[in-house]
Amino acid sequence: MRHFSIIPILLLTLIASAQTDRDHWMAALPDTMKVCKVSIPGTHDSGTAGVRFPMRHYARTQTMDLSEQWDAGIRFFDLRPRLDGGELKIYHGPASCHLTLAQALSVLKSKIERNPTEFCIVMTNSAGGGQAAVDGMMEVIRSVIPAGMLADFKADMTVADIRGRILFIHRNAPSDGVDAPGAVVRGWPGNGSTLRASLMSSAGQGTVLWAQDYFTSGSNDADAYLSAKRENIYGLLQGFSDADDGVWCINHASGYTGTGVRTNIKRCSDTINGQILDYLRTNSGPVGIIPMDYPSQELIDAIIGAQ
Length: 307
Fold this sequence. Notes:
Blueprint: H1 9-20, E1 40-43, H2 56-59, H3 66-72, E2 76-79, E3 81-84, E4 87-92, E5 95-100, H4 101-114, E6 120-124, H5 130-144, H6 159-162, E7 166-170, E8 183-186, E9 193-200, E10 206-212, H7 222-240, E11 248-251, H8 265-282, E12 289-292, H9 297-305
Parallel strand pairs: 1-2, 1-12, 2-6, 6-7, 7-8, 10-11
Antiparallel strand pairs: 3-4, 4-5, 8-9, 9-10
Helix pairs in contact: 1-9, 4-5, 7-8, 8-9
């Protein structure tokens, strides 16, 4: 269980660093720290700042582009490519983000090159195109990201193992014989939460993944959904600080109710993000990876400080 406590010196140092040097806040992390224990602010459907009218209301989840997200301190990026005209482009459902996978990866590559103390995690999830899209993602990744910048996955990897690199986590497994840099998720919960998913590298390195992605209730009852979402989020937050070494955690803040013009992504995120911020103000310890819709700078900084 998590307890009320005096904020440790490391936390104060990281908060101060985040407020002035968000583009390289990871410089303050000890080299020996396990990556799974680093509290990492992330974005859900990270490429959606470019979604245009009329799909913006129900498909946009971010106002900052990838470069701006990095500068704000985000280090987990959720990219969803789809085959479109023979090219892998970022989509959210049916909505084009007017950004290719190669362009998105080039932004992150540039940020890593300029800030070698940092690392980031990219989760890929196919938005359409079948197995050809999944296999094509692996090809694009290797064509854009230098081999030396691709992090090899292992459960107990440390910050020193991954500085200056990108770790890829794939929600879709490639075809046999197609190498997936990083790790592939097995047992993602879909619209729910699980302590039984796993991350597995192509070399056979694997570990337990706690994942929460309760993204909608399937109704317009926002109050009921938000209450249940809060319990899902808090359940993982409360358990993760005491989890065994090697356990990874991806705890989605993102969610919505309604459909079409009644979809309320922004209103839900305002409530959910506020609840997480309240939790972080009164609890200490690592929180894992938290992908968010429309994150505020205050919340990003609070996650960075939760080490």
